[in-house]
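Q: Convert this sequence to C-alpha cells.
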Amino acid sequence: MRKTTILAALAMLGAVWGWGQNDDEPILLANPSFEDMPLASRPPAGWYDCGFPEESPPDTQPGAFEVTKPPYDGQSYLGMVVRDNDTWEMVSQRLSRPLEPGKCYEFTLYMARSMIYVSQSRVSNQEANYTTPAKLRIWGGAGYCNKAELLAESNLVINERWLQYNFRFEPKQYHTFIVLEAYYKTPTLFPYNGHILIDNASPIYPVPCDEEVAQVPEQPAEEVPATPEQPRTEPTPPQPQPATPPVVQSEPEPEPEPKPEPPRILKELDRSKIKAGTTLRIEQLYFNADSDEIREESYPVLEEIYRFLRDNPDVVVEIGGHTNTIPDHEYCDRLSTARAKAVVDWLVQKGIDPSRLTYKGYGKRHPIVPNDRYSLAARQKNQRVEIKILSIGGRQGG
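A:
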C-alpha cells in the first residue's frame, strides 16, 4: 500500500473519531459575515466561486453595479445574480466538521434585495436591472461546488430590508462542504435577471430531530381493595318511573345573514368597463415615506387587483409609478420605478404569472394637476401608482 493511501486512511479514521467527539458543537463557517473589500465579480474571502464558465463570479457588496444598500452586519455582504441566459451564481466552502446523516441542524442568515442591480443582459447585450426576485438554495456535498443533496431553499426574496431566514437541515448522507446558490422562482418558466443579497450567516447548530410521540401502553385495571363483608339484603324492586314529558320541538334558529362584501375600491376595474389602453389610478395604495415598502392598509386594494387578474387570465397590465414634482428627476425615476415594481412583486408572490405584468417608473414627467410645491393635495394626487390595461383577450391598446 502506498504511503499516500495509508495517510488518507489514517486521516479518514481521525475524522470519523473527531465527528463523534463534537456532536453537540456548532459547525463553523469561515467568514460568515462575508467581510472583504467591496468589489465587483469577486466573492468575499473564504468563499469559493462555483459559477458557470465564462461568467463573472459573485460580488462583494455594496458598491458594485450601483448597489448602495448598507450591510446588516460588518462592512460588506455577498451579492449573487441569476441571468436571462440560464446561468446563475454560487459559492462554496469546507465545513469545520461534516454534516451527518440521521441528525438535524439549524442555520440562519439574513437576506434582502436591492431596488437597483444594474448589469448587462446576456441575451440582449443591453443594460438591465437585475431586480426580479430570486431565491437561495443550500446544498451539501463532498467537495467544492459539489451539489450532492439539496438541504434547504428559501422563498423568493422580495424584501428590501434585511430579514432573518431560518433553515433546518436533515441530511441523508455525510457532507463536508456547503454550497450557497442563487436560483430562479420554481417552477422556472423562463430564465430572468434577478439577484439576492446575503449577510450574517450563523454557525450550523445541531438540534434534536422531531421525535414521534411515544404511545402510552395500556395499563392493567387497578385492583380494588377488598372491603369488609356486608350483610346480604334483598334487592329493592324497581320503582315505576314518572312518565317522560313529551319533547317539544323548538323552532330552528335562523341562519345568520351573510355579511355584505365591503364596497369595492376600484369600481372601474371591471371587465365590462375596460378595454386595452384603459388606465386607472390605484386608490388607497400607500407606501412608507421615501420608500417602496407597501403599508399594510394597502392590502385590500391589492387583493382586488389580484382577484381581477386571477379571474381574467387573458389580461396583461402595466403598473406605472409616478411621484410628485419636487425632487430631482433621478430620485423621482428611482422611487417611482421601485414602487411600481413592489406592486408587481406582490402580485407575483400571490401567484400571478410574471409574463402578464410589467412595470415602469415615470418619475415626475406626467403630473395630473399643476405643480404646486406648497399644496399637499396636489403632491398627493401626482404621487400615485396606476394600472394600465396593455391587452385584453389578445387585443392590444395604443
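The chain has two domains: 22-207, 271-396.
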